[in-house]
Design goal:
- The chain has helices at residues 11-42, 53-86, 106-132, 160-164, 269-282, 284-287, and strands at residues 169-176, 179-184, 190-192, 195-198, 202-209, 214-217, 225-227, 233-238, 243-249, 261-267.
- It is of the alpha+beta class.
- It folds into two domains: 11-88 and 109-132, no CATH class; 160-320, Cupredoxins -  blue copper proteins (Immunoglobulin-like).
- Helix 1 (11-42) packs antiparallel against helix 2 (53-86).
- The longest helix has 34 residues, at 53-86.
- The protein starts with 10 loop residues before the first helix and ends in a 34-residue tail after the last helix.
- The structure holds copper (II) ion.
- Copper (II) ion binds next to loops.
Length: 321
């Protein structure tokens, strides 16, 4: 029988330490270069960007997770590449089992347990802290949020001056098949079909639905909140950069779900104020036809004190426009 052995011991046993040192050397080199590259070069380009506080917070989380996983993934690839090159079965040599790793090796077991345990527990701690402390999760927190933006205060009116003193701008997001509309309780309860938002202002989204479950997802804002009928789902963010964003529905909600898209923009506080007040006066004649502002609506409950949204007034799907 031909073997690749030239010494007394099994050839792989004889060369095992050598292999390990080579693999380790390649891994240390690649991880030493690649890990900082991922954090400093790739990280700032990761979704969802930095247009709002919650988006920036999510980008930081993703950067940390990707950075931590870089050495782990590189270890797998280095091992894989090394094995492909150096542990290749030579032609014409009968197949032979490789070397068993010692089953009772305390060192290997302890290293494995300690490393994976430390990784998982530190990720758990990091994730829990990031979910609660710096910028909320960017997701809907239900009707009674446990996280609110630091220093923000609520008020019945909003102006650019109150924007700079941290008065929240309230926006009600009303989802229905297959459209989002936006109601502005601090501007007479009027409703718009577009979503402009002022920069550097804490924004309180109140997300609800008139029919089925939708999901309000302006992804560049780092916000995603389910729109459930009969529920007020609150989400916060503060925009820090001017520019456009896209709103998508992120919950399969029927035939035209894919067309449930809106454009929005983060603008200066003064631009926002002139837009929203011009909408308020332009819509004044129609606003009084709307149901009374409330945190949720039901298309089937109307009358005095009800919050009826007339089915006849529902926007038509794109095919019928
Ligand atoms: Cu939808």
């Amino acid at each position: 029988m031909t073997t690749i052995a030239t010494e007394g011991a099994h050839p792989l046993i004889a060369r095992q330490g050598n292999h390990f040192r080579k693999i380790l050397a390649v891994w240390v080199l690649l991880a030493g270069v690649g890990t900082p590259l991922v954090y400093f070069v790739l990280g700032p380009h990761l979704a969802p960007g930095t247009q709002t506080t919650s988006a920036a917070s999510q980008q930081f989380d993703l950067t940390v997770l990707l950075t931590l996983s870089t050495p782990v993934v590189l270890a797998v690839y280095v091992w894989f590449g090394y094995a492909l090159i150096f542990f290749r079965q030579p032609k014409g040599v009968p197949l032979e089992n490789g070397v068993w790793i010692k089953r009772d090796s305390v060192a290997i077991q302890m290293t494995w347990l300690f490393t994976t345990g430390a990784l998982v527990l530190s990720l758990f701690t990091f994730g829990t802290y990031e979910l609660i402390a710096p910028a909320g999760a960017g997701g809907g927190e239900g009707p009674n949020p446990i996280w609110t933006p630091a220093g923000a205060r609520t008020a019945a009116t909003w102006s650019p001056t109150s924007g700079t003193n941290h008065t929240e701008l309230q926006v009600q997001v009303i989802a229905q098949q297959w459209k989002f509309t936006y109601r502005w309780p601090q501007f007479g309860g009027m409703e718009t079909t577009g979503l402009d938002l002022p920069v550097n202002t804490p924004i309180q989204f109140n997300v609800t639905s008139l029919d089925v479950i939708h999901s309000f997802w302006p992804y560049r804002l780092g916000v995603k909140a389910d729109a459930n009928p009969g529920v007020n789902n609150v989400a916060y963010t503060t925009a820090t950069q001017l520019g456009p964003f896209t709103v998508r529905c992120d919950e399969l909600c029927g035939l035209w779900h894919g067309a449930m898209v809106d454009k929005g923009a983060v603008v200066s506080q003064a631009t926002f104020y002139s837009w929203v007040t011009s909408r308020e006066s332009a819509n004044a004649a129609l606003t009084k036809e709307l149901p009374k502002y409330s945190l949720t609506y039901s298309p089937s409950v109307g009358g005095a004190g009800g919050s009826y949204y007339s089915g006849n007034d529902l926007p038509k799907p794109p095919s019928e426009k």
